[in-house]
Design goal:
This protein is of the alpha/beta class. The chain is about 45% helix and about 20% strand.
């Protein structure tokens, strides 16, 4: 009887270990990372260029199919999603950074962009100038908290 119990226990352990390995493999992304759900929080236009570069690097590290990224913008960071809005002047080239191409490129890779309705009202942003890739959410900060409650990892570049 003890021998039958030990064999059953051993078999059950092997099966459970096998299931565990399968679930890890199913959740694996590129470079040994697990699949991820991430919310990037951008609330400053002066850090938006770097934040979007972080998003691109994140996609490159995991692969587009292995990460779900939502960029939530509010305050001056929301201007990254306004057509014609420009970032800081590059000290080396003298050119002013235009966000439109970067936003379109990241959106085409599956990144979702959200802009705060409170900011739109408060900063009197013309809704016709908001990027076609942006979804308006009632509150940027409330959206960030909601996404965290839903299991998204928080990144604040």
């Amino acid at each position: 009887m003890k021998s039958a119990f030990n064999k059953t226990f051993l078999l059950l352990t092997i099966v459970l270990l096998g299931l565990g390995m399968t679930s890890v493999q199913a959740g694996s992304a590129k470079n040994g990372y697990d699949k991820q759900k991430v919310v990037y929080h951008i609330n400053n236009i002066h850090t938006a260029k770097g934040a979007l570069r972080n998003v691109k690097n994140h996609l490159n590290a995991l692969g587009d199919d292995n990460v779900e990224i939502i960029v939530v913008t509010h305050s001056s960071g929301a201007f990254a999603l306004v057509d014609g809005a420009m970032g800081k002047k590059d000290k080396k080239t003298g050119k002013v950074y235009d966000f439109n191409d970067t936003i379109a490129s990241l959106a085409n890779r599956g990144v979702k962009f959200q802009i705060c309705a409170n900011t739109i009202r408060g900063k009197k942003i013309d809704k016709n100038k908001i990027s076609e890739f942006a979804e308006i959410v009632p509150s940027g900060v409330a959206q960030v908290a909601d996404l965290q409650q839903k299991g998204y990892l928080y990144v604040k570049p």
